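Deliverable D4.2, example record:
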Amino acid sequence: MGMAVRSVQLMVDRGELQAWKTGGGHRRIARQAVHAWVDARHVVPAQGAPEPGQDTPAAPVQPPGGRPVVLLIEDSVHYQNLLRLLIGQRFPGVDLHVAPDGITGLILAGQLQPEILIVDILLPGIDGATLITGLRSHPQFARSQLIVVTGLDAEQRAPYAFALEDVPVVHKPQVVTALPPLLAQALKRLEATV
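Output generated by the structure prediction step:
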């Protein structure tokens, strides 16, 4: 699945993935349950994913033409379409991928190892703050730049401050004007490291 063990554990605990627990509290997941979950989300399994107990990350999928990979993790179809249009018009040189929820976002992040992640805070499956915290804890995402988009105002974002430290935040009502400069800066930083 290309996911962190803790993410899968949470999926089992929430009933999103069928499994059972042994007497010792270990989760056991049937291969068919994993395939059914992946098929239901139309996700391509990660190639070269590490075996259990290994720390070696899967090799990133190479973007076409070496274009920078941007992953948008957003559940609102309206904002998915808006940001596809905005990014496609203003940044035609990026390879944009979209995940409709946090779990699919984690899977795609593991597969693509994007240079830039644009993440909503409130997501089904796993919230964006938990997703960001999880990504920051893995060395394979150390080079990924984060931008948060949210409908929450500054006061409503206070409970998520732990995850938003040093992350640019765009309030959705200003996304058309505020996101392009932040994305341009992220792409410039990326060019400077190549």
